[in-house]
Amino acid sequence: MMKFITRKDILLQLKRDLIGKDAYRGVTLTYSWMANQFGHFSLGFIPTFILHKILLSKTEIKQAEIWAPLIIWGCWILFELFNFLGPLLLNKTIKKSASGKTTYIFNPEWANLAFDTLTDLCFFGMGALACSLICCYSPIMMIGFVTLCLLAIYPSYYWYSTKMHLQNAGYPFQLRLSQWNFNMQDQHKKIITGFLNSKEKGKHLLLFGSKGSGKTSLSVGIATEFSIRNNRCSYVTATKLLSMFFEQRDHISHSPGSWTWHDSSLLVIDDINPGGLIKKDILRATLFYELLNNAEYGPSNIQHIKAMNIIWVMGNEEPSEQVEERWETLLGTIGVPESDIITVNLGNT
Predict the structure, then answer these.
(1) Are residues 97 and 183 in the same domain?
(2) Which of 59, 84, 185, 229 is most deeply packed, by most CB within 10 A?
(3) pLDDT number for residue 253
(4) Same domain, 182 and 150
(5) In-domain check, residue 1
(6) Could you report the per-residue pLDDT of 265-309, keeping only the tens digit for each?
């Protein structure tokens, strides 16, 4: 399988992030990550500088250039441990909302959060030890600083490329699955977890629900977890996708490492129908299939829709619809096995 985000793409994105004004080009997720790590470096550097001066002028402690960074870094380690272990120890999967209803919360990806915490601590330490070296050179501090710099290479590569996967997906907002906080049945939670952890391709998740049921945010949360695992994901509205059905499959790099919907491992199709008080489908399954199976690109479109994982964000599920209008029938028409069609109705709580 072709790898879309290469080292060359990362270097090109890095160049774009470093050169140019934010007010002109906007702020990318990769730029935000770099700014965040520079902040961690600074929060290690500045307090160390202040503490070093205090230890030299107010105390008789020897080797202040060693004690100052160790104290500051130790404080940040304790702070990050509290940030990480606090939610882990206090988190409950079931809680009561203000209305008295039971609200399910998906468990966070603790291993991923631990890796993020260690990355932050690495930059805190780099800042503290860099300040120590400037205040007074010490071979021990130099060894520690070089070691942290080497340890930071892989996490920096991983997180920077991961942010590229997230920003190239085109999500309308940032949301991890553990942040999703709506009503859901246990059986639906198991379905979502199974879809997320499945290694198989060609799985189709149909999310039904009225306006305000959380179906869009749920789809974004699921897709975000796929992106963080460095899968190629794409978010599109149904209207936009219909126009894409008439486009040739070209890998046009609008941004480094970008991809088209054809090349996605997971595709989120949002706003297929509004739901709520609008019971009938505005975009009928038959019309969708007609545009999908157009004369020029139909066979290719069908092959891609059939083969990739897709989250279909629907409105209300209307039992009175004719069989030929139902979206399950559409998927069957293009060759998706019934076993690969998964339905979750967020309205059934």
Answers:
(1) no
(2) 84
(3) 55
(4) no
(5) no
(6) 999 999 887 766 666 667 888 899 999 999 999 999 999 999 999
Give yes or no: residues 208 and 340 share one domain.
yes
Same domain, 285 and 179: yes
Could you read off the pLDDT of 18-55 as tens digits, one per residue?
988 777 778 899 999 999 999 999 999 999 999 999 99
Where does the chain have alpha helices with state H?
7-18, 22-25, 29-58, 64-90, 110-135, 139-151, 153-169, 186-197, 215-228, 238-244, 285-292, 298-307, 327-333
Among candidates 251, 255, 232, 236, which has minimal Cα distance to 165? 232
In whole angstroms, give the CA distance from residue 335 to residue 337.
Answer: 6
Print the domain residue range for 313: 175-345
Token pair listed for 306: 């059939």
Secondary structure (3-state) at 321: coil
Query: CA torsion sign, 224 to 226 to 231 to 234?
Result: negative
Q: Is-contact 126 152, C-beta < 8 A?
A: yes
The continuous run of DSSP H or E covering 313 comes out as strand 309-313
Domains in the chain, number: 2
